[in-house]
Write a structure and sequence with these properties.
Strand content: 25-35%
Helix content: 25-40%
Number of helices: 16
Shape: globular
Number of strands: 20
Length: 497
């Protein structure tokens, strides 16, 4: 619901979802509510419980997400299957692969990024009769794009999956597991691909025998493969008052979610991180009753490692290739729950993380930035265009905006020019931006259309503001980005294509 067209302010999707979840629970309808982040799943549960007066009914709601201990997850699954729970707010950890019994209603809070995910979520309800499926649109740019043009969602087909099977971070685990099951030899090339045989020769745990490559390790290799991350490292979250293990956080998420001073949600209850032990890989937390939350501030740098494809597109140089992304959490904001105002900015000094991935980057020409090339407008224009393009890429590639990162700069040390990068957020890359490169013209055109269709004047969460911006959405110039993208769309090369 749009509350203020000028500011682009909208009713809280989490509030709407929690209100719906509570009402369906009152009516005795078994409901699953899918959220796009762990924090959102926890907040929906907390808000829904607060709306219920009956303690017995409150006890029949629960959150569910990755990061809980296996025992915690199994207990929630058991209660759901047996009908003890009426409502669960979950991440996509419950989207597939787990038997959760018969449900009456499925709520998706925000478009999950792909039609495949949306249908999978909605398909959880009504498997033996009538069911209710609901999409609660968030402030996200893609959600609001669909709300303004609902036919683009209703008529949308399930996407083709994107997977770079040659990425060693994806392939190596499969090669190890396959060699554990049976020897790998040349006859497997047709099924596994040439890359699998090449990797088999490189992996130290595999041994070559007359029958082929076999597993020579002492463990079960499939158990090494994390299902929700390409990194095997996790931090434990420990309650200092009880000494109990609350959950696990992947290393790539730990620095931004369980840093010193962070507010961490578990089972709907807030905890304050008292200390992050980087060497010991654990976060020490204590119950928290404050009226504020935290948002991490991150610095990002990109280094061009290898251009793979360079083309002249929309009147400028567009490149697909490999980049090295360096990130560091340098602080966090404390923000009021009541009005989202900033209380203060606290500095942090955490380890630098680095990964190589795939990216699209492009270099606007001077004519594209005419009258936009003075600071701070130039940085605001490039930054807003970067955010908007990240928000719209899921229209073209099977991904979610949380799978994508970006960087915009008025002068990049390697190009010497204003440059915008959009990169895969997974180490090694999974093919998202290769798809973006292939459909670059349509991607830019849809982004410009989305910006033009958003009724706000200066930028809002439905167009250029990003929920995961490491620079806390500063600076942003929506009108500058729209002017710039329209110039690309109207370039002679675009009109001739």
């Amino acid at each position: 619901e749009l509350l203020d067209e000028e500011l682009g302010m909208r009713a809280s999707a989490l509030g709407d979802a929690s209100r719906l979840l509570a009402e369906l629970a009152r009516r005795g309808l078994r409901t699953i509510c899918f959220a796009k982040s762990r924090k959102a799943a926890e907040l929906i549960h907390r808000f829904a419980v607060d709306r219920l007066d009956d303690p017995a009914l409150r006890a029949r709601l629960a959150p569910y997400r990755a990061g809980y201990t296996p025992q915690q997850r199994r207990e929630i699954e058991r209660r759901l299957v047996e009908g003890d729970l009426l409502g669960v707010s979950a991440t996509d950890a419950l989207e597939l692969g787990i038997d959760i019994g018969l449900l009456d209603c499925a709520i998706s809070v925000g478009f999950p990024g792909t039609m495949a995910s949306l249908r999978q979520q909605w398909g959880r309800a009504g498997r033996r009769g009538h069911g209710l499926a609901v999409l609660v649109a968030s402030e996200d740019a893609l959600d609001q794009y669909f709300m303004r043009q609902p036919e683009t969602l209703i008529d949308r087909r399930v996407e083709a999956a994107i997977l770079d099977h040659a990425n060693p971070r994806v392939l190596d685990g499969h090669v190890r597991a396959a060699a554990f099951e049976a020897p790998i030899d040349d006859a497997d090339r047709a099924t596994l691909g040439d890359e699998a045989l090449d990797r088999a020769a490189e992996l130290p745990e595999l041994k070559h025998t007359p029958r082929g490559w076999v597993w020579a390790g002492r463990d079960y290799p499939a158990a090494r493969i994390p299902l929700r991350s390409t990194s095997p490292d996790s931090f434990t979250v420990v309650d200092v008052e009880s000494g109990s293990l609350l959950g696990l956080v992947e290393r790539e998420r730990a620095y931004s979610t369980v840093h010193d001073g962070a507010v961490y949600l578990h089972m709907g209850e807030p905890y304050l991180v008292e200390a992050l032990d980087v060497d010991g890989r654990r976060a020490l937390v204590a119950p928290f009753s404050g009226d504020w939350y935290t948002q991490a501030k991150k610095e990002t740098m990109t280094e061009i490692a290898e251009p793979l494809r360079v083309q002249r597109r929309l009147g400028m140089e567009v490149t697909f290739g490999r980049v090295v992304v360096t990130e560091q959490v340098v602080g966090y904001q404390r923000k009021s729950i009541r009005d989202q105002s900033t209380i203060d900015l606290v500095r942090l000094e955490l380890p630098i993380t680095e990964f190589e991935t795939e990216a699209v980057w492009y270099l606007p020409e001077p004519e594209h930035l005419e009258e936009l090339d003075r600071e701070p407008r130039l940085l605001g224009t490039l930054h807003a265009a970067e955010h908007a393009m990240i928000a719209i890429l899921p229209l073209w590639a099977m991904c979610d905006r949380w799978d994508i990162g970006g960087l915009s700069t008025n002068i990049h040390p390697q190009t010497g020019r204003p440059t915008i990068f959009v990169y895969d957020g997974h180490s090694g890359g999974v093919g998202i931006n290769e798809r973006g490169f292939e459909v670059f013209e349509g991607w830019v055109e849809d982004t410009a259309r989305m910006l033009a269709g958003c009724p706000c004047e200066h930028g809002c969460p439905s167009c250029v503001q990003s929920p995961k911006c490491g620079n806390l959405n500063e600076p942003l110039d929506k009108q500058g980005a729209l002017t710039f993208l329209r110039r690309l769309v109207d370039s002679p090369s675009a009109r001739s294509s």
